[in-house]
Each structure stands twice: as structure tokens, then as C-alpha cells.
Amino acid sequence: MKLIIAAIKPFKLEEVREALTAIGVRGMMVTEIKGFGAQSGHTEIYRGAEYAVNFVPKVKLEIVVADGLADEVVETILKAAKTDKIGDGKIFVLDVNQAVRVRTGEAGDDAL
């Protein structure tokens, strides 16, 4: 099993969710986050005063899938979240040793 963590632009969330549902992803966790990378934040003007925004709002997706589906999930997120502008986000893929469904006690791929 693989854990796919993706940080994307918030306005792309629904488009990414629809694309992942279409390829068979049955669930994900979504968290609103703030961060910075190459974009390094920006400046904004609010009521005539300029101030620095050091952390940019993002949405973090956490998706656990069977090994065979991981590459397709990454490609789907890449296509759906891409705007060709700086700050599109990052995707990380990690190994998952175990998953257990709390309600039934099913483990491994059956828990997904």
C-alpha cells in the first residue's frame, strides 16, 4: 500500500476529487494548510497598507491506495491540479506498512 500526500491550490480541490473518484479512489483525507516553497509567499495590499504573506494557503490530500493504483493516482493529481504557474504544489509517495478498518477489523488492502 502507498500513502500519497499532495499539497495543491485550494481552488483545484473539487477538480482533483472528481478526477480521483473517476479512477476508483474511494476515500481521502483533506486538510487546509499553509506553507511555502519556491513561491516564498508574496505581498498584498489591505486597506492601503502593504504586508507580507509568508505562508500561502494550500490543501493537503492524504490518500492510501493499493500499490498498483499509486502511479495512476499521482498522474491523475498531476493533470487535475496543474495550472502551469508557480505554487501548484507537491506530491509525496510513502510506503504504508499496515492499515486496519476500525469498524470491522479488516487489515491490509481489505481495509481500504
UniProtKB/TrEMBL annotation:
Q: Which GO terms describe its biological process?
A: regulation of nitrogen utilization
Question: At what positions is O-UMP-tyrosine found?
Answer: 51
Answer yes or no on keyword Transport: no
Q: Name one GO cellular component term.
A: cytosol
What one GO molecular function would you report for this record? ATP binding
Instruction: Name the source's superkingdom.
Output: Bacteria
**Which key words tag this protein in UniProt?**
Nitrogen fixation, Nucleotide-binding, Phosphoprotein, Transcription, Transcription regulation
Q: Where are the transmembrane segments?
A: none
Pfam families linked: P-II
Give the signal peptide range: none
Show the PANTHER family listed in the entry: NITROGEN REGULATORY PROTEIN P-II (PTHR30115), NITROGEN REGULATORY PROTEIN P-II HOMOLOG (PTHR30115:SF11)
Query: What this chain does, per the record?
Result: P-II indirectly controls the transcription of the glutamine synthetase gene (glnA). P-II prevents NR-II-catalyzed conversion of NR-I to NR-I-phosphate, the transcriptional activator of glnA. When P-II is uridylylated to P-II-UMP, these events are reversed. When the ratio of Gln to 2-ketoglutarate decreases, P-II is uridylylated to P-II-UMP, which causes the deadenylation of glutamine synthetase, so activating the enzyme.
Instruction: Give the family per the record.
Output: Belongs to the P(II) protein family.
Self-association state and partner proteins as the record states: Homotrimer.
The name this protein carries in UniProt is Nitrogen regulatory protein P-II
